[in-house]
Amino acid sequence: MYKKVRVVLENGDVFEGVMLPPTQFSDSDIVVLKLKNGYNVGFKKGRIKEIVELGEVQTAPLSAKPMPKIEGEKVWLLATGGTILSRVDYVTGGVYPTLSVDYLFEVLGGLEAPIEAEEVTAKFSEDMTPALWGVIAERVAEAFKKGARGVVVLHGTDTMHYTAAALAFAFKSAPGPIALVGAQRSSDRPSTDAVLNLKAAIAVAARAPFAESVVVMHKTSGDTVVAVHRGTRVRKMHTSRRDTFQSINTTPIAEYYPEKELLQVLTDVYKERGGLDYTAKFEEAVALVKFYPGMHPRLLEALLEVGMKGVVIEGTGFGHVGEGVLPAVKKLIDAGVIVAMTSQTLYGRVNLYVYRRGRELLSMGVIPLEDMLPETAYAKMSWALANFKREEVPRVLTTPIAYEMSPRSDPLVFGGL
């Protein structure tokens, strides 16, 4: 049972709301209210003059409403951090990652589904590394070995598409989906997307016929539908919108409709549920570099000096770089570094045969990566260098493995937000 209270501060300010009970993550010197507008606010006890009880609240406040029950086999939740697993420090006003999924259960009021939850790490997504991709992949594999129907990975949104691509290459086959999910808005905001995204991700893990790495996030700014994007074809396209993730050069693999609790698969081309076959090693000596006008060639040469084994370039248009950096590109290749080309336009595909510059790059040994996204190419380069001989890597990069490239671009698939 929750209590509605009036908090009177020493300076005369008055606030009314539902008092949230303390948790193991609470600051003992802070009183937290959920206001009528849905936001949480914290007060230091020393600033409070009086707390007046106004009665009991029969229903839980917004952030404590339980998840609808999802029937099915057990789903594993692996926590890695991010906004979906962050909490507000009401002393500093900052948002911090928390390791324990118990915090998420407390904030959401519990998840009424057959779930096993484990903690992997507590990282903001900008702190993810290829080494951590390997750790996450191993933990996903362990969950499947324990009988998981599907696995949900709670992850920060900023680099979620990198990790999704990495897991797509790591798992040649799997018993179920690997659904990465996050939130753009923290759970104490009325516009939070955490609850719906998580509900959809659990539904995907439990029910989907496909066994791929996918990103499960809002399709629109409203709460009507959640998109399920292929891990190798998705990109974060906005800093704060709830529909930030978009499928590039393709369409989502599925959609989830919360009102009907309906998971609609939009294609019959996917990896089906099967046995567990994976490789969880990733090479860290890989760089992703964006070409820009006036780029100094020493920036590319420095990659050789720090020991890079593979370099993915985001070129202009069809996949070009300026004449001034061509000697640096050749120097990398001559030293044994694998150099691959993607396009910073995102939509469309690399074609090094159209213009002279492209043919010059081809003659040096630059590998064109068709319509593969730069971030996906970076993850694939990292995975390929860790699991294949150096001479095999060019073939691996240009061979479709996880729907990361297509033989031609669909002219009807273009756009953004």
Percent in helix: 10-25%
Number of domains: 3
> What name does the CATH topology of the largest domain carry?
Rossmann fold
Q: Uncertain runs with pLDDT below 50, 5 residues or more?
A: 59-70, 108-112
In CATH terms, the superfamily of the largest domain is L-asparaginase, N-terminal domain
* Quantity of strands, as a count: 23
Biggest sheet: strands, sense, closure? 8 strands, mixed
Radius of gyration: 24 Å
**Termini gap:** 42 Å
Which structural class is indicated by helix and strand composition?
A: alpha/beta
- Average pLDDT rating: 86
Percentage of residues in DSSP E strands = 25-35%
Spatially, the strands of the biggest sheet line up as 9-6-10-12-13-14-17-18
CATH architecture of the largest domain: 3-Layer(aba) Sandwich
So what's the overall shape?
globular
Report the CATH C-level class of the largest domain: Alpha Beta
Q: How many helices does DSSP assign?
A: 9
Explain the overall architecture:
The chain has 417 residues and is α/β, with parallel strands linked by helices. The protein has helices at 101-108, 130-145, 160-170, 194-207, 297-305, 326-334, 356-364, 374-387, 393-397; strands spanning 2-9, 14-19, 30-35, 40-44, 48-57, 75-79, 86-88, 95-97, 115-119, 150-154, 171-173, 178-181, 213-218, 226-230, 234-236, 245-247, 254-257, 262-265, 277-278, 286-290, 310-315, 338-343, 367-368. The protein has 3 domains: 2-61, SH3 type barrels, CATH 2.30.30; 65-278, Rossmann fold, CATH 3.40.50.1170; 286-397, Rossmann fold, CATH 3.40.50. The chain has 9 helices and 23 strands. It has an 8-stranded mixed beta sheet, with helices on both faces. A 5-stranded antiparallel beta sheet has the order 4-3-2-1-5, with no helix packed on it. A hairpin with a 6-residue loop joins β7 and β8. The longest helix is centred in the N-terminal third of the chain and has 16 residues, at 130-145.
